[in-house]
Amino acid sequence: MIFYLETDLLRRSEKEEFRNISLHMGDNEVAVSLKVLSDYLSRYYEKR
Question: What's the pTM?
Answer without folding.
Answer: 0.60
